[in-house]
Amino acid sequence: MKMQIGITGRGGQGVLFLTRILSETALEMGLEVIASETHGMAMRGGSVISTLKVGAFRGPLIGSGRAGVMLVLDPGSYDTFSSLLSERGIAFLNAASSQAHPHIDATDLAAKMGSPLMSNLVLLGFALGHERLFCGYSQVEEMTGKISPSRFREANLRALKLGYSAIKKT
Questions:
Q1: What is the rounded distance in angstroms from the CA atom of residue 144 to the CA atom of residue 159?
Q2: H or E stretch including 38?
Q3: By the number of CB atoms within 10 A of the CB, which of 78, 98, 100, 169 ranks highest?
C-alpha cells in the first residue's frame, strides 16, 4: 500500500484534524505514515496544506503530479495546489458544483446540521464513500470517535456519516 494525499483549505477549516484522523487510522492499520503541514497566514484564514504519505516513503512532501487523492476544503485552495494531483488522481471538493471533480457542498450540509465548522468531516465522509482512500469508513469512524474531544465527538461522527451517506444518494 502506497498512497500520497494532499489536504488543503484555509486556516480554521480543520485541515490538520483530518490529517490527524487519517494518520492515526494508518498507524492503527499497521501502515507506515509520514505527515507534514505548511501554514500560510492560517490564523487569518490563509492557505494551509497538509501532506500525508501512507506506505514506505522517505520524505513528507508530495512532488508535482504525485498525489493520488486530494481533499479540498476551499475551492481556491485547489487552484493553488492542483499541480500536486496526478493524472490518475482524484480530488474531492467542498464546493456547490464542479465539472471536473467529485464535489459536495460540505459547508452547507454542516451548517444545516447546526455545526458549520464540521465541513471537514462531511468532506472526509464523502471521500470515503468513493472508496479511493487507503482505509474504509468504519476504520475512520472508529478513529474519529477515539480522538475527538468529548464535547465534539457526537457532532464529528454525525458530520462524517452525513458526508458518507450523501454519496449513496447521488
A1: 11
A2: strand 33-39
A3: 78
